[in-house]
């Protein structure tokens, strides 16, 4: 049996690229879309088939890390090329189909024993399952990392402290302000005002649809924190409907500098562009 396993494994290694190309034929037979077979994909597929062949005549401890590394690398590439997880996982079954079709043909041609076939199955199938697991873990981890970077970029853009002069800046807020964004506004405004050495910050509310007690409370916290840094804060863009909501809720902005129109306030400070 050992000799037959070695012979079968060597045949798989020898024909690894033929098997790699066969995957696209099988995918077409199953009605699955087939993309151009690049050298990178051919090499990646060939490596996995080669590992399957070696697993039949090498120690498990030697080949198992190869399958795990292959799964991790493939998961990273799938995220990089924006391949959906369900589609990527669906493709793994074609490795199994192609490999066992090849083994069946070899069994028929070489008259391998039933014991050899069962042994090959007991080695190959668990390794393929482990490869898929490693692929899935790597895919999820890398996908979460990419989403995290995108979320950070979006959050940074959602709290833009824009310098107008050496000491004056504006923070235009757009959209709903929830607890998470309030915390982000606090952290970003303090950090940016310190970095830019801002002395006067306008927080423009023109793009904020609703102000409730929670939003007002968080704005107060931001303003008070900035005051401790020596930054004067002016709220601008308080539209009539926002003002009505504030009054109806009994929210008091007493002691806080408020400007109805940002442009007029900047013009009064000599910052706004004068008409030609």
Query: What Rg do the Cα atoms give?
Result: 32 Å
Q: Which regions have little confidence, pLDDT < 50, spanning 5+ residues?
A: none
**Which range best describes the helical content: under 10%, 10-25%, 25-40%, 40-55%, 55-70% or over 70%?**
55-70%
Number of strands: 5
Helix/strand class: alpha/beta
State the end-to-end CA separation: 93 Å
Tally of helical segments: 10
Q: What general outline do the C-alpha atoms trace?
A: rod-shaped
Largest sheet: number of strands, sense, barrel closure? 5 strands, mixed
Q: What does this protein structure show overall?
A:
- It is rod-shaped and about 95 Å long.
- The protein starts with a helix and ends in an 8-residue tail after the last helix.
- It has 10 helices and 5 strands, in the order ααααααββαβαβαβα.
- By secondary structure, it is α/β, with parallel strands linked by helices.
- The mean pLDDT is 84.
- Strand 3, helix 8 (213-228) and strand 4 (232-236) form a beta-alpha-beta unit.
- It has a 5-stranded mixed beta sheet with strand order 1-2-3-4-5.
- Helix 1 runs antiparallel to helix 3 (39-55), helix 3 packs antiparallel against helix 4 and helix 5 (85-110) packs antiparallel against helix 6 (114-158).
- Helix content is 67%, strand content 9%.
- It has helices at 2-14, 16-29, 39-55, 60-80, 85-110, 114-158, 179-196, 213-228, 240-248, 262-268; strands at residues 162-163, 168-174, 200-207, 232-236, 257-259.
